[in-house]
Amino acid sequence: MSKKMLVAYFSAGGTTKRIASLLAKAANADLFEIEPETPYTRADLDWTNKKSRSSLEMNDPSSRPAIKSRVENMAEYDVVFLGFPVWWYTAPTIIKTFLEAHDFSGKQIVLFATSGGSGLGKTESALKPCAPNAVFQGGKLLNGASEGSLRSWVESLNIQ
User: Fold this and answer.
1) Is 5-156 a domain of CATH 3.40.50.360?
2) Cα end-to-end span (Å), the chain
3) Among residues 51, 150, 65, which one has the least CA distance to residue 99?
4) Which of 66, 82, 154, 159 sits between 20 and 30 A of 136, alpha carbons compared?
5) Residue 81 is inside which H or E element, if any?
6) Could you give the C-alpha distances from 76 to 66, 100, 147, in angstroms and in order?
7) What is the mean pLDDT of residues 7-24?
């Protein structure tokens, strides 16, 4: 039996969105964009400004930016690929909002990210408490990935 898969992603500048779309196609998965209730402006994303919205959120462990919508049929999915740009060596806090807004009991979560220069670091351990009943499986930076390389990666995970 084939597992039903979802690619859920947050993208601030479009890079993660492009990879998520290719991944959904390669994995034959549904696609869901995690959108902030209040969209980020260019100024909000200015990581060099310690008072920018993203800087304030990332410096506050309790920050949970509101999301526009939830996955209404989450119970139908067995595997969720969860993607985001790496901010401050980890996932943006909106990813914690998404995880805490859904029941991931018994689901497999596979992280993927895009980054301008840093890796995933301790992202998985930071996110696990937000979905304690999920099974996290690895994680990978997918900068510049092609549909073919994504298909190979999905196949290597042995999830179907």
Assistant:
1) yes
2) 8
3) 65
4) 66
5) strand 79-85
6) 24, 17, 25
7) 96
